[in-house]
Design goal:
single chain; about 250 residues; mainly alpha
Length: about 250
Amino acid sequence: MKNKWWISIVAVQLLGMLIHNQAFAEPLPDVSINIGNGNGDTPGTSALSLLLLITVLSVAPAILVLMTSFTRIVIVLGFVRTSLGTQQMPPNQVLIGLAMFLTFFIMAPTFSQVNEVALQPYLKGQISQTEAFQEAAVPMKKFMFSHTREKDLMLFMNYTKTEKPETFEDIPITVLIPAYAISELKTAFQMGFMIFIPFLVIDMIVASTLMAMGMMMLPPVMISLPFKLLLFVLVDGWYLIVKSLLLSFNT
């Protein structure tokens, strides 16, 4: 058996040497990335464009989370799982995937408007990149402004000493995004509190019953979990949760 282990180790080492020699027997091909027209009139433009592209891609998840309905949806779904006490069921991947598709569904009219007034004209060369960003910001501002509390908006406007705008289009995007984010957090926690109430009642009833029966060593969670799942299934809980989320964005 010991000899077989030594033979295996030697074989692995020989295979590694062969792979190393094969990999470096020929020089690696040159790989280059060109961004822009490539005329070379302005040195450093390609590197700067690549840096900006990488920056935008790294910020894209934050844009999805803070400028869309994703924040409210994923927090509410997390509260549902916590109130049920099912630990990791549904898994995080399922909740995040459901939240993303619900976000795409809710944001579809806004994204369609962005595509119509900004993306397609830019791809056709009718407007510049700066104009495309300005046009795309209008539908996003309209969506965020409709779900932002005035108190939260005034908090950031007073801090930056921004004058009172006439319309939502005049609100700086740097002010509207954090105001919308904390408004979504408050709304999500309010919905989470309402979700907790019926399951909390079940936990209290089960705990009181076990205490009255003298079963103080039996964890109430083990007994209340099946009843909470039964209640959630009988009332069609996922339908009610998703319906409440959709209706919350129609107001």
